[in-house]
């Protein structure tokens, strides 16, 4: 064919084919190299991603470690708070205790956690309170905060507690955080405060009664002085078998009873200062058992057996026989009237009690020997809710008007207090009551019996000035003084007395404390001493001992006579006074 | 520390954290001593990561085994045992060898930094002076001739002159070994445990003589020819290759990649240079190729630097692809094939030593999995104690000669026919 090039030699054809296949191989090789490169880059990317993932993982782990450390620190802080909390704390889940703190263990007296943790929380609660807590667990909206409950310690002892609840979550489960406060001591203090408040109210009541009694005592005592003393003067002039003498004695006795009532009221009001002298309590009891009052009581209750069991060789006590007798009478009367039906037994006992320690004895008594008087009956007993009130004035369970005025046990309480003693009541409904009175003993000996009407000490005609604004009193005292062989000069005021004092040969002044109008007894005494420093004086009053009387005694007055007083008492006081002067 | 794997003559211990080097060496040795029984081992292999204080590590071993038992090994990029491979942290691994019938002779060669051939010759003469006929030889040496600095790249000990010097005295003895590296930055020399002490710039040879044991080797790299085209080296100097087929080699590689990005890689990640020692136009078999890593492009951009200086002008080469998938596949197939072959020949494998190029580690070769894990699996299937290390240069007998290899894993099995 024209135009065709020279024919290809086999060698050139082979070379061309080789070049062709080389080119193909090179192309395939380059493609493979690229493919491998792509694979390599992909792996690099994956490795980079893995490295980044690993880095992120490590960062996350670092954060977890950091957070764990923070949590550990936080847990340590909260654990320290929990462990060192002053209040007892308990964690409860599904009714079981899962954790408590040392304060809790101390409160409940446990030292082994395994005996608390894992056990029912209610096992630590008084059985009577468990139902309430179960109900509150079901109805949390009814919970009080804090809630008063009673706990049981490791020894079965009762704990007065206040419990507060908080609902929390532990491990995704509901739980209760209970905080417990021991209020035993607080309640004791509250009880003490309540008792003090009751005492305060009691004293206020006494004060009110005292004010009332004091208001009438002065005038009433003046009246009673005449009722008691005039029969006494008249009896001295009448033969013993006279009918009139008997009537006069009844008048006199009634007057003395009325005076005793006034004294009771004053004693109750604690405005009366008792004159405590060594005496034998057994003597007081014997005297009462021989009294008309006791015989009358026996007569009205013939089926009741009275059993005196009096210890011998008791030490004397500093006391007032009148007041103690009155207290005894009240106790015995109450015992008798506690018998539901006829019959029964009243036991009157005395014994010596040696109180070793004032702090451990339930009654507020000083350590040392005491004489105990107890009056027991097997009557109806006193209801528990009434025991705390029996010493309140005018508290009575008896039918009003039939027996008692409600002052009986109040008088007993006041008497015991005035004697620095204590009183204890042991009573059980349906079984009976025992009232125990403990009175401190004294080492002083008992005084000899005072003078009797037959051998009253009398004067030698000394002139005694009677200063009293009450005309009746002046006349009565003048009559008594005359009977006792004294001369009487009566004046109606302090001013009048001072005018006469300078000129009259007065051996002694009997001065009433309260006089109106004009200066009172204390001022009269002071001015009298200015006129005659050696003036002897005896103060008188229808009131009990007052601060004014005490001042008068400090100024030098020899004695204080509380109206109404009898001939015997007046004779004794005058005799002692003149002995002092001489 | 993990519990060791052992046969009746070999025992392995591994310590993941040997940062307290003395204590780690001591603890591993105590465990090992308790495991091997009353008869002390005749040889200890000990390798540790370059971050471990090698002197203290060796001292810890000595504190248990005393100074009589030779300790051979040194610092490496990482260690491999039956249970772990580690090139990230301060790990160490020990192997106790109780070789009742076999004589172990240890010789050392010095002066590597000055002249590799002479050092090799001196080592050979030292071995020869001890007499006897050896069945196998292990060789470990410090790969660092001069360390990398901020101003200069590292200079490595060339294995060809070292082996040539050695073979100038001792012929026909298969040598398996490694040029040790402490780390891939090559900023410090590799310590060599020479039986007695630890030193650098040194080579240590362990010879097994009068032995009833058998020694087998598998070479695995996984590099495959890029395009099957032979090129002729037309200009080279030492380890520097400037031209092939009369073209600047860098330009040729540019055309293969289609860009110049590869020039930023040190070493070049995917492309190597291979020499086919098999039939030129026959089947291109993996085990016939010796590969040379391209360390990087030279500063004048014309040539490339190789890891070994053995490509003289006139040599025929092929460009090879370092394929990570092929690498893993190669490790799995070749290690299993070697174990199977030995066992098929009626022998019992006692121990495996795996000398592995550090460049084959997954994080360096961009491999999705660790190829050494395939070797571990192959040996673990038969409870064969395994000790291995990541190195700079691998040495194995190849086509009648022992050669320094790149990017290669060498598995050395010790077996007995009894």
Any overview of this molecule?
The complex is a heterodimer of chains A (582) and B (418). Chain A has 582 residues and is α/β, with parallel strands linked by helices. Chain A is built from 15 helices and 17 strands. Chain A is elongated. In chain B, the strands form 5 sheets. In chain B, strands 1-6-2-3-12-13 form a 6-stranded mixed beta sheet. In chain B, strands 5-4-25-24-28-15 form a 6-stranded mixed beta sheet, covered by helices on one side. In chain B, strand 26 (393-398) and strand 27 form a beta hairpin. Chain B starts with 9 loop residues before the first strand and ends with a strand.
Oligomerization: heterodimer
First and last CA, distance of chain B: 32 Å
Supply the helix-strand structural class of chain B: alpha+beta
**How widely separated are the two ends of chain A?**
196 Å
Rg of chain A over CA atoms, rounded to whole Å, is: 50 Å
Largest sheet of chain B: 6 strands, mixed
Strand order of the largest sheet of chain B: 1-6-2-3-12-13
Rg for CA atoms of chain B: 21 Å
Count of helical stretches of chain B: 8
**Biggest sheet, spatial arrangement of strands of chain A:** 2-1-5-4-3
Parts with pLDDT < 50 across at least 5 consecutive residues of chain B: none
Let me know the average pLDDT of chain B. 90
The proportion of residues forming helix of chain B, as a percent range, comes to 10-25%
Count the beta strands of chain A. 17
Q: How much helicity do the residues of chain A have?
A: 40-55%
The biggest sheet of chain A, with number of strands, parallel, antiparallel or mixed sense and barrel status, is:
5 strands, antiparallel
């Amino acid at each position: 064919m024209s135009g065709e090039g020279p024919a290809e030699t086999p060698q050139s054809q082979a070379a061309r084919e080789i070049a062709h296949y080389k080119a193909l191989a090179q192309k395939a090789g380059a493609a493979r190299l690229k493919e491998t490169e792509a694979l390599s880059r992909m792996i690099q990317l994956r490795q980079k991603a893995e490295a980044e993932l690993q880095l992120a993982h490590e960062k996350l782990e670092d954060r977890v470690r950091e957070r764990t450390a923070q949590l550990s620190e936080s847990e340590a802080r909260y654990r320290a708070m929990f462990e060192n909390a002053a209040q007892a704390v308990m964690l409860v889940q599904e009714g079981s205790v899962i954790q408590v703190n040392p304060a809790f263990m101390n409160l409940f007296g446990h030292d082994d956690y395994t005996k608390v943790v894992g056990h029912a929380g209610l096992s630590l609660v008084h059985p009577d309170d468990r139902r309430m807590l179960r109900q509150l667990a079901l109805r949390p909206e009814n919970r009080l905060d804090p809630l008063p409950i009673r706990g049981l310690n490791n020894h079965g002892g009762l704990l007065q507690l206040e419990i507060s609840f908080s609902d929390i979550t532990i491990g995704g489960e509901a739980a209760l955080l209970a905080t417990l406060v021991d209020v035993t001591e607080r309640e004791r203090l509250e009880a003490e405060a309540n008792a003090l408040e009751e005492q305060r109210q009691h004293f206020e009541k006494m004060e009110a009664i005292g004010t009332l009694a004091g208001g009438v005592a002065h005038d009433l005592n003046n009246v009673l002085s005449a009722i008691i003393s005039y029969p006494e003067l008249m009896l001295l002039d009448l033969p013993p078998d006279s009918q009139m003498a008997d009537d006069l004695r009844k008048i006199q006795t009634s007057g003395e009873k009325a005076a005793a009532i006034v004294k009771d009221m004053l004693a109750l009001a604690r405005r009366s200062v008792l004159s405590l002298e060594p005496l034998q309590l057994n003597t007081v009891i014997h005297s009462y058992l021989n009294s008309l009052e006791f015989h009358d009581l026996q007569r009205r209750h013939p089926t009741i057996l009275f059993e005196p069991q009096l210890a011998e060789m008791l030490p004397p006590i500093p006391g007032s026989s009148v007041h103690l007798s009155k207290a005894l009478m009240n106790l015995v009367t109450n015992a008798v009237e506690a018998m539901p039906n006829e019959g029964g037994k009243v036991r009157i006992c005395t014994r010596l009690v040696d109180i070793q320690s004032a702090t451990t004895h339930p009654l507020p008594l000083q350590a040392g020997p005491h004489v105990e008087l107890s009056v027991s009956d097997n009557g109806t007993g006193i209801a528990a809710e009434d025991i705390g009130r029996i010493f309140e004035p005018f508290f009575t369970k008896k039918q009003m008007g039939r027996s008692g005025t409600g002052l009986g046990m109040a008088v007993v309480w006041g008497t015991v207090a005035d004697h620095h003693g204590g009183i204890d009541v042991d009573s059980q409904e349906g079984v009976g009551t025992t009232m125990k009175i403990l009175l401190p003993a004294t080492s002083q000996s008992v005084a000899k019996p005072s003078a009797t009407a037959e051998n009253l000490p009398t004067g030698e005609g000394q002139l005694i000035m009677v200063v009293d604004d009450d005309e009746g009193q002046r006349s009565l005292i003048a009559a008594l003084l005359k009977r006792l062989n004294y001369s009487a000069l009566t004046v109606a005021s302090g001013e009048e007395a001072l005018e006469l004092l300078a000129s009259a040969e007065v051996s002694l002044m009997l001065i009433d404390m309260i006089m109106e109008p004009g200066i009172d007894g204390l001022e009269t005494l002071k001015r009298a001493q200015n006129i005659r420093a050696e003036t002897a004086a005896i103060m008188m009053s229808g009131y009990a001992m007052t601060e004014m009387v005490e001042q008068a005694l400090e100024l030098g007055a020899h004695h204080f006579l509380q109206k109404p007083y009898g001939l015997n008492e007046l004779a004794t006081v005058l005799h002692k006074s003149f002995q002092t002067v001489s | 520390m993990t519990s060791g794997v052992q046969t009746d003559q070999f025992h392995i211990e591994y310590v993941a954290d040997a940062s307290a080097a003395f204590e780690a060496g001591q603890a591993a040795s105590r465990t090992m001593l308790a495991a091997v029984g009353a008869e002390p081992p005749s040889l200890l292999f000990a390798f540790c990561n370059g971050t471990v204080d090698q002197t203290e590590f060796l001292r810890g071993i000595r504190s248990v085994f005393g100074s009589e038992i030779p300790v051979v090994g040194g610092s490496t990029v990482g260690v491999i045992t039956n249970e772990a491979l580690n090139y990230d942290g301060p790990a160490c691994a020990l192997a106790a060898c109780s070789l009742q019938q076999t004589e172990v002779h240890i010789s050392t060669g010095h002066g590597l930094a000055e002249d590799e051939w002479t050092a090799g010759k001196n080592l050979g003469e030292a071995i020869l002076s001890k007499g006897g006929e050896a069945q196998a030889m292990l060789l470990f040496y410090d790969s660092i001739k001069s360390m990398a600095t901020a101003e200069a790249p590292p200079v490595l000990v060339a294995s060809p002159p070292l082996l040539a010097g050695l073979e100038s005295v001792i012929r026909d003895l298969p040598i398996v070994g490694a040029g040790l590296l402490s780390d891939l930055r090559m900023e410090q020399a590799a310590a060599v445990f020479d039986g007695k002490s630890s030193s650098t710039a040194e080579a240590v040879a362990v010879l097994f003589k009068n032995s009833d044991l058998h020694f087998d080797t598998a070479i695995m790299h996984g590099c495959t020819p890029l395009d099957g085209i032979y090129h002729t080296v037309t200009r080279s100097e030492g380890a520097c290759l400037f031209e092939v087929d009369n073209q600047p080699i860098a330009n040729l590689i540019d055309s293969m990649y289609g860009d110049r990005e590869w020039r930023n890689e040190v070493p070049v990640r995917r492309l190597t240079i291979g020499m086919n020692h098999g039939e030129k136009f026959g089947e291109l078999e993996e085990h016939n190729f010796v590969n040379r890593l391209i360390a990087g492009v030279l500063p004048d951009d014309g040539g490339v630097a190789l890891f070994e200086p053995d490509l003289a002008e006139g040599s025929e080469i092929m460009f090879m692809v370092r394929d990570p998938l092929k690498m893993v596949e190669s490790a799995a197939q070749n290690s299993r094939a070697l174990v199977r072959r030995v066992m098929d020949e009626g022998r019992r494998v006692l121990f495996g030593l795996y000398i592995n190029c550090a460049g084959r580690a997954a994080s360096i070769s961009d491999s999705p999995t660790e190829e050494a894990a395939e070797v571990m699996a192959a040996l673990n299937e038969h409870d064969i104690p395994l000790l291995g290390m990541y190195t700079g240069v691998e040495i194995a007998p190849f086509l009648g000669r022992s050669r320094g290899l790149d990017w290669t894993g060498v598995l050395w099995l010790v077996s007995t026919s009894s």
